[in-house]
């Protein structure tokens, strides 16, 4: 009966991965019955095949889950309609509650039938035995056996906890259970006395901003967190995860962040190979509808690097909701996992982000200054201009307030706190992070990210002459136009390099630099164009085109 109950309450099993010959072991899982041994090789070649009873019961429960999700999102309109029709009176609600109770009992019966179907399937019984053994004893052998299965990630045991590093337990400056430190936006009205009366006046606006951010705003900003979209993408995600595990020997792990959210990660280790780039770890930060199963991890993988991918809170196997605080908490535990469990030094870690992943990438660069490098692909400087682009102009005040208070993705501000090498990749046909049309390359917010970075690091060089020259260079949408502007100002790269090396030798590497203070306007133009070309590379593609491996290059540094 205990095993039957486990089958009723157990997670859904999606796939049993193909087993490599080198991984097969004749012994059974420690702590499990001796009859539970590794399945024959033929059973590892296909998706898990449920019996008819389990299959049909799963379909009914999945359909009920979709209907519940649709009901949840449409509930405000449904309540308004029922109220207008007079159906919310006590005499009408009681019969509806009876119908709802009957429906719940029927669904519970379907769940029991699914459990019986699982109980009659030897594959599922073996899986649930291994899962229970792993929860009792998290030995390396049990985890190795469990990693052969793909199932609902909520039942996967936690592999790494945010408090696990000893340095975190001894330090008072680390993250608390409330979260890691974020840069807070400045008040919208500086110098205004924060009196009780002012607080009361602001309260309706603050409530409206909160409701907008937690309903429409968050789902517009992170559509990948919407359950219905994840349900539609499930076959693609399962296929991508199988590729990472079976072809790349990826290892899945669950990390628990300081806010209690559980983060789904995938690690591909290339350190045992001859290629030197395998000694470097690339942590990938996905876009607002990106998942590591099918996201930007493929680019550094093809380039031969070790890779650690992770899903945003609320995406696929990760729990929670993707607000900036939760995002930073997740990134923190991912970096800690890379350092303390996977054994990479910060100097061997590269942060690579695509699109909205630039927020967590720049946060990690700001919070872990020893990280080797940061590569931002199709990212932006600040969310406010992009949010204003898609919302009515009459909502400008509400949108600005909502973003600043609840969805403040201040990439440029965080990136300027980082002292290491940075490479920005601008897509010349980007239709997402442009504020006008894709053809207007000067409206690409990647330009503003570059300008803010250079103005912070080289304020004297980026004076009026240097800023004007870089803006002209940014207007170029092809390599031919770039070369034309570069040659027009007669940029001497050897001279620029010697000036920067001399300054660094005399004053040290810490930014901002005062280089260019006593330089002629022509010299500042040359130096500004040289620095712009080293920090930004163009890629002639749209926003969602995968970045080819040959375009994945390490940032320039002296």
Automatic annotation (TrEMBL):
What's an example GO cellular component term for this entry? Answer: membrane
From what organism does this protein derive?
Answer: Tursiops truncatus (Atlantic bottle-nosed dolphin)
Question: So what EC number does this one have?
Answer: 3.1.1.23
A Pfam family assignment: ABHD16_N
The protein, known as? Phosphatidylserine lipase ABHD16A
Membrane association type: Multi-pass membrane protein
Looking at the record, the residues that make up the Phosphatidylserine Lipase ABHD16 N-terminal domain are 3-152
Disordered: region residues? 24-43
């Amino acid at each position: 009966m205990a095993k039957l109950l486990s089958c009723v309450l157990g997670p859904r099993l999606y796939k049993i991965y193909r087993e490599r010959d080198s991984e097969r072991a004749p012994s059974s899982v420690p702590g499990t019955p001796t009859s539970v041994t590794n399945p024959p090789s033929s059973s590892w070649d296909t998706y898990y095949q449920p019996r008819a009873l389990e299959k049909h019961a799963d379909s009914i429960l999945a359909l009920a889950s979709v209907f519940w999700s649709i009901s949840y999102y449409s509930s405000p309109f449904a309540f308004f309609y029922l109220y207008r029709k007079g159906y919310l009176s006590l005499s009408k609600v009681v019969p509806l509650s009876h119908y709802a109770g009957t429906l719940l009992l029927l669904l519970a019966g379907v769940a029991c039938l699914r459990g019986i179907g699982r109980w009659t399937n030897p594959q599922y019984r073996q899986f649930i035995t291994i899962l229970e053994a792993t929860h009792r004893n998290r030995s390396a052998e049990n985890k190795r056996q469990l990693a052969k299965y793909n199932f609902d990630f909520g039942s996967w045991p936690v592999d790494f906890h945010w408090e696990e590093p000893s340095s975190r337990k001894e330090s008072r400056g680390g993250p608390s259970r409330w979260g890691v430190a974020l840069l807070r936006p400045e008040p919208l009205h500086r110098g205004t006395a924060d009196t009780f009366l002012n607080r009361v006046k602001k309260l309706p606006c603050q409530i409206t901003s909160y409701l907008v951010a937690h309903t429409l705003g968050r789902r517009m900003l992170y559509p990948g967190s919407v359950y219905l979209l994840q349900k539609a993408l499930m076959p693609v995600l399962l296929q991508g995860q199988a590729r990472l595990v079976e072809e790349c020997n990826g290892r899945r792990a669950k990390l628990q962040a300081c806010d209690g959210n559980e983060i789904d990660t995938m690690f591909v280790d290339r350190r045992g190979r001859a290629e030197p780039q395998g000694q470097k770890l690339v942590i990938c930060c996905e876009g607002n509808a990106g998942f590591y199963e099918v996201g930007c991890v493929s680019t550094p993988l093809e380039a031969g690097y070790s890779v650690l991918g992770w899903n945003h809170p609320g995406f696929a196997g990760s729990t929670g909701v993707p607000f900036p605080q939760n995002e930073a908490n997740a990134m923190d535990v991912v970096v800690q996992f890379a350092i303390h469990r996977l054994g990479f030094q910060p100097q061997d870690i590269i942060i690579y982000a695509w699109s909205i992943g630039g927020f967590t990438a720049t946060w990690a660069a700001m919070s872990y200054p020893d990280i080797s490098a940061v590569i931002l692909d199709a990212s932006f400087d600040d969310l406010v201009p992009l949010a204003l682009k898609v919302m009515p102009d009459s909502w400008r005040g509400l949108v600005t307030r909502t973003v600043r208070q609840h969805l403040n993705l201040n990439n440029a501000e965080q990136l300027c706190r980082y002292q290491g090498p940075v490479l920005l990749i601008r897509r010349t046909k980007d239709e997402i992070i442009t504020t006008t049309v894709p053809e207007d390359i000067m409206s690409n917010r990647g330009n503003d990210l570059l300008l803010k970075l250079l103005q912070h690091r080289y304020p004297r060089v980026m004076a009026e002459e240097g800023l004007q020259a870089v803006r002209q260079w940014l207007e170029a949408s092809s390599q031919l136009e770039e070369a034309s502007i570069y040659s027009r100002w007669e940029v001497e790269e050897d001279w620029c390099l010697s000036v920067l090396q001399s300054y660094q030798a005399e004053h040290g590497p810490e930014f901002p630099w005062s280089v260019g203070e006593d330089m002629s306007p022509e010299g500042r133009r040359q130096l500004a164009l040289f620095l712009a070309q080293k920090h930004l590379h163009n890629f002639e593609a749209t926003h969602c085109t995968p970045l080819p491996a040959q375009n994945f290059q390490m940032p320039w540094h002296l």
